[in-house]
Amino acid sequence: MQEPEFTETKSQEATVPDINNQTGTITKLQPPVQSQEQWQQYGEQISGFLATLPEYLGSFFNQYKQPLVSVGLIVAAIVSVKVLLAVLDSLNDVPLVAPTFELIGIGYSAWFVYRYLLKASTRKELTSEITTLKSQVVGKNNPEA
After folding, report:
1. How far is Cα 60 from Cα 69, in angstroms, rounded to an integer?
2. Least confident segment among 7-16, 43-52, 61-70
3. Checking phi first, is residue 17 left (phi over 0); if not, alpha (psi -120 to 50) or beta?
4. How many whole angstroms separate alpha carbon 127 and alpha carbon 140?
């Protein structure tokens, strides 16, 4: 049986140069120049973006200052409440701390009732202190005082 003969055809448009024309030699391929130019273009685009980033962030913050501050305060409040609850929970796990705090709270409540709520004159004093504090917080003079 005879093997069929094949002829090798080379296209004029796409010719691949012989890289390894000798057996046992390895030649290194040089990266194409076009990819280096592309990387330089990418680098220029990135450096241009980084150069304008502070101006962009500044204008963004000036434009949305009030909502950003509000969101920041809400997040800070949530985090502080979570931390406070974690601290109180850990204190509650310590033996004899929870009953001690309960005794302190009962004692302060008893003192407050004795000091401000038993007599009419001390109740008037308490209401005047509350209205004074209220006017200081709100910033208006109360017509009742």
Report:
1. 13
2. 7-16
3. beta
4. 16
